[in-house]
């Protein structure tokens, strides 16, 4: 492991360029692969407005999709949205050396398997990001709040690569929570995401409090959360029973909030329906756990997507 | 019973003025209560384009809400949409004589009780309309297809008033199917309406085939239909098991179709959510029949309505 690891970010949108900024600040060499923002970033790097202070940065290399890498990265960070038709293995493949570690900073459940199957000999790190950050123009990012990561190897463990990467992220000012069971953490986040994200889209972008305060709204959210907990348990990841109460109380305490899927929907961008809900329902079907509430919401959204 | 009954239509929109035209053609005296279209109808009556030929007609009396009736009607036909905040008993009350029969030509389930409670001494006739008709301008109606009614007394029976009214409607060219159990017929229609109408709204106005052909769409429609059948049975109205298969086959045979709730939604008009779905779910809760699919769709729409 090199002392000053070289990190390459594939999909350097808001989230990718944010963690790139953190790693750059921590002394890593950080390069990016870009499409639409290539010219802007080539010209002035990434410009940031951030609650963490000055985060603007210039990547060491700025590549296009079909470029040849000028050095082999120690870590490839994959930060693209998980959407049907996006072949994430193909996006990563050209940039990998034999020892390159693949790092996912992406939303959703059961999103690692595709990469684990495509690259069985590569170490795979899976991260959940708790962050509010958005792209406001070419190469221009607004970081509103948070930034902590939950990190672990897929499917289990927390190896020396995790140690190194977590150390650098902490050097850059980010809280990293280590886990030996990242899949369980994804289930935990799914308990919140599976109801609130899709319901907000079905309700034309409704915020969390509108969902909870509608007649029957909180009861539906709780029923969906209980279904996710039942699938998680059947999948080998039992979660504490009080998680539902805690999620409801925490959501109410946070105030009206539009989640990322609501924002994608309102801006006309594709939504990560499978990563957030469809994969959970597919696992439920495989394990024969009844999830009528989850399935109804999923199907209603699939009808709308036709 | 007078030989040439006087019918007064409260809520003479597309459906009310259509059946008014039919009864007028059959020799009845027919008056209307109007709001927005008062001046237009006063000037030129109702103008029709219809597959049944010339149906344009001039009412015998044209009233506003606060007028005093110039003769007591034998039948009051109530044809308004069933919406929260619309006090249908108050709409009917000023026009009733002691012997006036109240006739509902309205969509939905459990929509009679409000009138039966308000006017316990009046005969009450409940009709389901199978018709495609729409208002295209003030006093201007386009009748695209169909027109048959299912008719019976609420809660049960088929009395002499039904006989007379059905006879006049048939004289005017309309098929009337008599039933002694109109509530069962409303449950039967609910089996189709409860999935297709609300799902079309959740899916932004999707037609029937889009709903059936989406991944998981037909399975969801079937699950919702089965839930309605279970509630109907618990309510004392068992329906034949093959109704679900027949509904699916019939819907596919009919081709892509946008139902009335989808059209209301697409035109920005309020939707009859309680009459079509909410009342069925309320009865399910009272009878402790689990309806998770119906409840999820209902709640998602209620969140959207906030």
TrEMBL record, chains A, B:
* EC nos: 1.1.1.169
Which residue numbers delimit the Ketopantoate reductase C-terminal domain?
A: 183-303
The enzyme's main class, written as a single word, is oxidoreductase
Q: Name one GO molecular function term.
A: 2-dehydropantoate 2-reductase activity
Q: Where is the Ketopantoate reductase N-terminal domain?
A: 7-155
Report keywords, A-Z.
NADP, Oxidoreductase, Pantothenate biosynthesis
InterPro entries (UniProt xref)? 6-PGluconate_DH-like_C_sf (IPR008927), 6PGD_dom2 (IPR013328), ApbA (IPR003710), KPA_reductase (IPR013752), KPR-Related (IPR051402), KPR_N (IPR013332), NAD(P)-bd_dom_sf (IPR036291)
Spell out the reaction equation it catalyses: (R)-pantoate + NADP(+) = 2-dehydropantoate + NADPH + H(+)
Q: In which pathway does it act?
A: Cofactor biosynthesis; (R)-pantothenate biosynthesis; (R)-pantoate from 3-methyl-2-oxobutanoate: step 2/2
The text of the family note is: Belongs to the ketopantoate reductase family.
Q: What does this protein do?
A: Catalyzes the NADPH-dependent reduction of ketopantoate into pantoic acid.
What PANTHER family does this protein's entry cite? 2-DEHYDROPANTOATE 2-REDUCTASE, PROBABLE 2-DEHYDROPANTOATE 2-REDUCTASE
Kindly provide the name given to this protein in its UniProt entry.
2-dehydropantoate 2-reductase
To which species is this protein native? Alcanivorax hongdengensis A-11-3
């Amino acid at each position: 492991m090199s002392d000053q690891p070289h990190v390459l970010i594939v999909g350097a949108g808001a989230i990718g360029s944010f963690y790139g900024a953190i790693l750059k600040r921590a002394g890593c060499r950080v390069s990016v692969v870009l499409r639409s923002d290539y010219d802007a970033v080539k010209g002035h790097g990434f410009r940031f407005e951030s609650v963490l202070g000055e985060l603007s940065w210039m990547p060491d290399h700025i590549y296009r999709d079909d470029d040849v890498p000028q050095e082999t990265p120690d870590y490839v960070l994959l930060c693209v949205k998980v959407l049907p038709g996006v072949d994430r293995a193909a996006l990563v493949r050209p940039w990998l050396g034999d020892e390159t570690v693949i790092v996912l900073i992406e939303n959703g459940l059961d999103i690692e398997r595709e990469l684990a199957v495509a690259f069985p000999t590569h170490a795979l790190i899976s991260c959940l990001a708790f962050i509010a950050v958005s792209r406001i123009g070419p190469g221009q990012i607004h970081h509103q709040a948070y930034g902590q990561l939950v990190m672990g190897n897929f499917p289990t463990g927390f190896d020396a690569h995790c140690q190194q990467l977590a150390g650098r992220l902490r050097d850059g000012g980010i809280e990293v929570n280590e886990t030996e069971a990242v899949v369980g953490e994804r289930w935990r986040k799914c308990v919140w995401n599976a109801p609130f994200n899709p319901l907000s889209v079905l309700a034309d972008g409704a915020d969390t409090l509108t969902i909870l305060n509608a007649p029957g709204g909180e009861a539906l959210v709780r029923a969906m959360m209980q279904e996710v907990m039942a699938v998680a348990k059947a999948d080998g990841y039992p979660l504490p029973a009080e998680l539902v109460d805690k999620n409801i109380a925490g959501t109410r305490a946070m105030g009206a909030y539009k989640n990322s899927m609501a924002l994608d929907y309102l801006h006309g961008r594709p939504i990560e329906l499978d990563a957030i809900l469809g994969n959970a329902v597919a696992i439920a079907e495989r394990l024969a756990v009844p999830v009528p509430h989850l399935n109804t919401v999923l199907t209603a959204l699939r009808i709308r997507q036709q």
